[in-house]
Amino acid sequence: MKNILVTGGAGFLGSNLCERLIREGDFVYCLDNLYTGKLKNIEILLENKNFEFINEDIRTFNINKLKFDEIYNAACPASPPAYQKDAIYTLETNIIGTKKMLELATLNNAKILQFSTSEIYGNPLIYPQTEEYWGNVNPIGIRSCYDEGKRVAETFCFDYKRQKNTRVKVIRIFNTYGKNMDKNDGRVISNFIVQALQNKDITIYGDGTQTRSFCYVDDLIDGIIKMMNSDDEVTGPINLGNPQEFTMKELAEIIVNKVSSKSKIIFMDLPKDDPTKRKPDISKAKEYLKWSPTITLDQGLNKTIEYFKEVLEK
Ligand code: UDP
């Protein structure tokens, strides 16, 4: 049995990961200060003898207390409204938090997997995005606390590897959706589904021609675990995402049809620095991890609609 630390373990991705690791027979410590994470996401896990919840802030957590074999560093608010609400906190979580987790991994000779992001590429000028692309990021804009924070976190990982031989692994996660998303988190799939189920206006930002590529959470978790289980030489960064690309207008129409909603689609201002096109090149994930997503948008949306129906009924 491995001792595993998941930071941000009560969040959307973190809680899905904790569930999966417990099912595989590991002992999971879940660190989360519930800034955006939710206790309800880990409610069933709290009763499991192989699960311990640590309600602490990653920036101040006492790193010498516990011993780990593996660390998944997922702590950080991830939806644009959530990470912009307290931008300094977001930056500190990425910078101070990642440094602390790298120190802890080094001390334990543990593997550490950093949850990085397609936001590393900013508003990308190449298409689809490969890991070699250095990105087109505004350093002083409203998304910078997240984008630059995550970029520094990657820099930290590779400097720890070079200077201290820390066993780092970096994945760049593209848009992901599914169970345990917060209905109010502000991301496009949760917004559109909740709006459609409630017959409220579907809010497209801009003209809806911007694109995203959406990965269902179960596929992503498979890829994340494959990355952790790969040899130490496989450090990444490796893109994880589903290359099926859609405009936000297409997405809105698909969801309205699926829900048979009476909602009408309205157009609102496009937020600043909103990337216009995003699609992962996942050749590296295929080559090094033998991973590619298997769940289509159609299948994933069906599951996610069912999930949000239950959430709204409660
Ligand atoms: N978006 C939208 N309506 C919403 C929420 C988001 O049209 O209610 C757009 C947003 O402007 C962006 C895309 O959907 O172009 C994806 O946004 P999200 O916040 O999910 O993630 P991002 O990829 O921007 O981090």
Write the SSE topology.
Blueprint lengths: L2 E5 L4 H12 L3 E5 L7 H4 L8 E4 L15 E4 L6 H6 L1 H22 L2 E7 L26 H21 L2 E7 L2 E2 L10 H10 L4 E4 L5 E3 L1 E2 H13 L8 E3 L4 E3 H12 L5 E4 L14 H7 L7 H17 L1
The structure holds uridine-5'-diphosphate.
Uridine-5'-diphosphate binds next to helix 6 and strand 8.
Descriptive tags:
single chain, 314 residues, alpha/beta, Rossmann fold, two-stranded parallel ribbon, 10 helices, 13 strands, binds uridine-5'-diphosphate
Please provide a written account of the structure.
The protein has one domain (3-177, 215-243, 278-293): NAD(P)-binding Rossmann-like Domain (Rossmann fold, 3-Layer(aba) Sandwich). It contains ten helices and 13 strands. The chain has helices spanning 12-23, 39-42, 80-85, 87-108, 144-164, 188-197, 217-229, 248-259, 283-289, 297-313, and strands at residues 3-7, 27-31, 51-54, 70-73, 111-117, 167-173, 176-177, 202-205, 211-213, 215-216, 238-240, 245-247, 265-268. The chain is globular and about 55 Å long. The two termini are 36 Å apart. Uridine-5'-diphosphate binds next to helix 6 and strand 8.
